[in-house]
Amino acid sequence: MNRRVHSTLRRGPAQRWPVALLSLCLALPAAATPPPWAPAHGWRAKQGAAYRAPAAAPVAAWSPAPVPDIRGGSCNREVLGALLGGVAGGVLGSKVGDGSGRTLATIGGVLLGALVGGSLGRSMDNADQACVQRTLEHAPDRRAVGWTNPDTGRAWSVEPLRTWSDSGGRPCREYVTGVREDGRIRETTEQACRAPDGSWRRLG
Q1: Three-state secondary structure readout of 111-163
Q2: How confident is the model at residue 56 (pLDDT cuts 50, 70, 90)?
Q3: Which stretch of DSSP H or E encloses residue 43?
């Protein structure tokens, strides 16, 4: 008997199992293209000419456009109040937004309906509501914007919490509005969607 074979046979079980394992691995078929009769799941479906990669999730066409005052965490309430009063219509584009269209939408949104309802909304004047409109249009999520009403002494803040698109493709936002007055803080959370004219309308 061949000396090498004889030596292998005389090994105990603990010595022979690596040899047996190697033989088993060599006997297994290598990974290869599935046979023609295999169902077109997974690999074949992806490699076939008809395969198309999954489409990327749709990205909302609208996103907040930064402007100096909102980017700095404040709202230029005085200019908005003047525009609402019809005093400074000529400075609309240069002092408030990126062009007059967005500012007109802000003013129009205020005239069409309040973005803050309930007792908090009744504590706001039109310029305060205009600041809410402006914050929703220009502030990114989790960016708080504040201002103080000099006539009432109330300190307001608005913070967009999240942004999404509804079934009709409109941008919608959830936001929290807070006011500090006489050492007390009150808050309310609401939602609004952007209308085709660029103004924001409160839901509910």
Answers
A1: HHCCCCCHHHHHCCCHHHHHHHHHHHHHCCCCCCEEEECCCCCCEEEEEEEEE
A2: low
A3: helix 43-47
**pLDDT(104) > 80:** no
Q: What is the pLDDT of residue 93?
A: 41
pLDDT digits (tens, 9 = 90+) for 170-194: 999 999 999 999 999 999 999 999 9
Contacts of 93-99 spanning 24+ positions with Cβ under 8 A: 96/134, 97/67, 97/134, 97/137, 97/138, 98/65, 98/67
* 3-state SS class at 179: strand
Q: What is the pLDDT of residue 186?
A: 96
d(CA 112, CA 86): 16
The C-alpha angle with vertex 195 and arms to 191 and 171, in degrees rounded to 5, equals: 55
Residue tagged 């002092």 (tokens) = 95
Strands in 171-181's sheet, in edge-to-edge order, are 145-148, 155-165, 171-181, 184-194, 200-202
